[in-house]
């Protein structure tokens, strides 16, 4: 350390003697609710969870923009990530995802996956936006969850950013508006594409589940589009924001932050 920096630190300690010991509190513009699935079991018997990049990338983008991100899950408590979304996994599938690696290794963020709040205990009025992460588990835990559907409806109807990505878009499928129509009907949306689902199935020589989000969205009357295989692609239709898959997490976070700034 140079004498200049050493002397500067000493001067600051003399002027502000408590500064060195004060806990850093980042500024916050409000709280964003980030929902992940609790652990589940796929149809093929595999343990499944949320996809790490779909949590860590929006988290990073929104905290950088000045928002406090609170992680919730369908059951609360510990949440498990899909194995291939872990940058430390022996397959090396997500080895280049340094944002997720940082989240999992940092003592300030890693514990957040051990003690998530349950969506049953969430007061939507405490939050300025909601983001629903994907992964394989949402296909088994989201569609039947009336609490999650109600939360999404409350955020959407109040005009707040309402976002979901990848298989997390399954959380939107059964949400109804006061007039009885489905929320996604007539909306421009994206989600994990059938072609991507089938590529995953080919890689594991089997199936995780018996239906596809893209097809279910079309059946609900949504205007579905995608940006190509594994594309960073996201759509905003009013205050509804959707992302195609894990490579869209940062873009979804940016769209949410931009809407909040408006």
Index terms:
two-stranded antiparallel ribbon, 8 helices, 11 strands, globular
Structure report:
- This protein has eight helices and eleven strands.
- It is of the alpha/beta class and 262 residues long.
- Helix 2 runs parallel beside helix 8.
- The longest helix is centred in the first third of the chain and has 13 residues, at 3-15.
- The chain is globular.
- The termini are far apart.
Ordered list of secondary-structure elements with their pairings:
Layout: H1 3-15, E1 31-36, E2 40-41, E3 47-48, H2 53-64, E4 68-73, H3 98-105, E5 117-118, E6 129-132, H4 138-141, H5 146-157, E7 162-165, E8 188-189, H6 194-204, H7 213-219, E9 223-224, E10 234-237, E11 240-243, H8 249-261
Parallel strand pairs: 1-4, 1-6, 4-5, 6-7, 7-11, 8-9
Antiparallel strand pairs: 2-3, 10-11
Whole-number radius of gyration?
20 Å
- β-strand percent reads 5-15%
Order of helical and strand elements:
HEEEHEHEEHHEEHHEEEH
**Could you give the order of strands across the largest sheet?**
5-4-1-6-7-11-10
Instruction: Determine the mean pLDDT.
Output: 92
Number of helices: 8
By DSSP, the count of extended strands is 11
- Described by the principal axes of the CA atoms, the overall outline is globular
Based on secondary structure, the structural category is: alpha/beta
Cα end-to-end separation? 43 Å
Helix content bin? 25-40%
Q: Stretches where pLDDT falls below 50 for ≥5 residues?
A: 9-22
- Biggest pleated sheet: 7 strands, mixed
